[in-house]
Amino acid sequence: MLTNRHTCALPHAHSSSCVLLCSHMLACPTAGIAYVMVTVFLYDEYGDKATLARHYPGMVRYMDYLTSRADKGGIIAYVRRTSTHKRNRRNGKGWGGVQNFGWASVTVSDTHIAPHTAITSPRKHPPPRNNCDSPSSPPTPTPTLVKPQPGVQPQPTTPTAPRSYGLGDWESSGDHSPIGVTATMVYLEGLQNMDRMAQVLGMQDDSKRFRALADTVVAGYNAKFGGKGGDPSFAGSQTATAMPCALGAAPAPNASLAWLKHSIARANNHSLCGEIGWPYVVRSFASYADGDMVLDSMLSRTDGPSYGYMLSVGATTLTESWTADRGASWNHAMNGHIDAWFFEHLGGLKSTATGRPIVLAPRPSGDLRHVDVRRALATGILSIRWEMNHTIDTFTIYLDVPAGAEVHLRLPTRFPDVISVSGQSTDASTAFGFVSPMENWVHGDDWGLTFAVAPGRHGIVVHV
Question: What is the pTM of this model?
Answer without folding.
Answer: 0.74
